[in-house]
Amino acid sequence: MTVSSSATTSLDENLDWPTQGQYEYAHLYSSRKEITTFDDICTAKVDSTAYDYVIIGAGPIGAALAYKLAKDHPTTKILIVEKNWNEPDRIVGELMQPSGCQALENLGLPDVFSGIGAVPAHGYFISYKGKQLYVPNMERPAMDGSRYKGVSFHHGRLVMNIRAACKAMENVTCLEASVTELLGDYENNELKHVHGVRIGPVRDSGDGPKATEHSVYPSKLTFVCDGITSQFRKALNPAPVDLISHFCGFVLEHEPIDTADFFTGPTGATTHMARPTTSKVNPLPMPHNGHVFLDGVGPLLLYQMSECETRVLADIPGSSLPSEASGQLRKVLHDSLNRSVPKHDYPGLNSLLLTTLAQSRRIRCIGTKFIPATANKIDGAIWIGDSLNVRHPLTGGGMTIGLWDIVHLTDLLRTPKSINQIKAQWYWQRRPRAIVVNTLSVALHALFAAETKELGLLREACFAYLARGSHYTMHPSGFLSGLFPNPLMLVYHFFSVALLAVRLRVMDQSTAYNGGSLPVRVFSAFYTLFVAASVILPFLWKELQP
Question: How confident is the model at residue 47 (pLDDT cuts 50, 70, 90)?
């Protein structure tokens, strides 16, 4: 497909939105002059105690942490170690919730979305069984009707903008190398105290003698920020991890939208959506919003990465993935996309999805998992971001949690408290938002990927509940966006949905689970209540563990 190469001005009504304008550190976006290599460190014979802080990983969390520490403590020396400082390419981490945008402002990075083609995100459009509803972001407290906004973007571009800010700090050393070991004290094979890290080259060429590794012993702390595939998480949390599902992704290319008429709509159930019949324009029903379609094998998530590109993430539940080599994966995806986005409701989008799937050379897939946070009893180190805990990416809350982790932690590091006091207080400060976002992500996935009649009934009740408007819509919106981090209210609304499911079943008003005599309907209704409890309570219990 030929896509217009001309850059279009964002049609978002707020021209002061941070995606407009120039980024302060744009000149360092792809610069490598500030990058130190492993050979440079070995040649210069850097003192192993030359740094106050060592940060493992320069993803969005590690780079933002380095920048904030450098700004707050200009006399300290910080070493941040990353295997590859070139632009990363991932299929998740491309949607920032409004609360995450707030965290970036608190970290001194309000303009980090500028210059990367990012698109404002006003809320969520949800489609289920031929019905649609709109869940906008929460209103700002100013009472002027304006709402908080999220933003969607290319993951790698955002990371490079945050790294650019990190490179600009004179007291930060950006090292391209690999951390091979946490150096510390062990008791019964358990790490008790981290003194430093052992650093090696990014890769061993295999020619000649093995490269000499270099040890660094920070005078204050080591931060582990090496993401979802963290090689050091097991030192903190050795529990085995099972896959929940797989996200399969590809990108739609299209022309930009030429009207802002469908950026927002009425709260709750709505027919306010675009119905393009051609893929030559933006085919989304409500551009500048996240889109969730619930009629496929698993939930289908769509969001724009730019005005001309939309990310497709199709969820396939279960720990195993159909084979792509045999063609089974594409067959499953074709069926799921066709059911999720029926041609009679979304002609342009249906055509573009199926055409792009057929033309894609490779379907990129990533396993999804849930890893609760564990209280850190290891001295000398702090785990942050996905190295500490992981949630299902369905709700796009991962970076929001990681960035708020940094906000709380760096605020505490400016106090005279001891490191152990800071770690304990930080762990409790971060919990409300983490509990809400993490628990909601796996609970919603269980409902949206319903594999039983009871879960299907709960999914139907969830859709009907959100369609009511008022606080029935806006409180869940606050949970999704991270703006309303209240675990008790999350439990209240979840069981309100479950009670609505009970009523639908008893009154025989459900299309997902119908039929049967009154005693059978009553029994199955209350069994559905038990299923609802079994969905949320185990995850909530894991999050609540001290």
Answer: confident
Which tokens sit at 423?
Answer: 């770690």
Indicate the pairing of strand 268-269 with strand 131-136. Answer: antiparallel
Cβ neighbours of residue 21 closer than 8 Å, sequence gap 6 or more: 111, 114
| Cα–Cα distance, 451 to 460 (Å, whole number) | 13
| C-alpha closest to that of 249 among 365, 394, 367 | 365
Secondary structure (DSSP) of 492-518: HHHHHHHHHHHHHHHTT--SSS--S-H
Query: What's the distance, CA 416 to chain centroid?
Result: 33
Question: Tokens 């945050």 belong to which residue?
Answer: 162
Please report the beta strands in 307-431, taking only residues with DSSP state E, as ranges in sequence order: 309-317, 364-369, 381-383
Instruction: Determine contact, residues 130/339, Cβ cutoff 8 Å.
Output: no
Cα dihedral 180, 186, 192, 195 sign: negative
pLDDT of 165 over the 50 cut: yes
- Given the structure tokens 């002059």, which residue do they identify? 33
Structure tokens at 383: 């785990």
**Is it the case that residue 6 has pLDDT exceeding 90?**
no
For residue range 346-397, what is the model confidence (pLDDT) as tens digits?
A: 999 999 999 999 999 889 999 999 999 988 889 999 999 999 999 999 999 9
Residue 300 near residue 292, CB atoms below 8 Å: yes
Angle (deg, nearest 10), helices 487-506 and 453-466: 110
Report residue 339: phi and psi, to 5°. -75, -40
**Joined tokens for residue 334:** 């074709």
Label the pairing between strands 172-176 and 78-82: parallel
Determine the average pLDDT of the residues in 134-157. Answer: 90
Residue spans of beta strands (DSSP E) within 344-404: 364-369, 381-383
Indicate if the pLDDT at residue 399 is higher than 80: yes
The whole-angstrom separation of Cα 223 and Cα 383 is 6
Residues in the chain: 546
Which stretch of DSSP H or E encloses residue 524? helix 518-544
Name residues whose C-beta falls within 8 Å of residue 223's C-beta, 6 or more positions apart in sequence: 53, 54, 55, 56, 62, 65, 381, 382, 383, 384
> The tokens of 186 are what?
């062990």
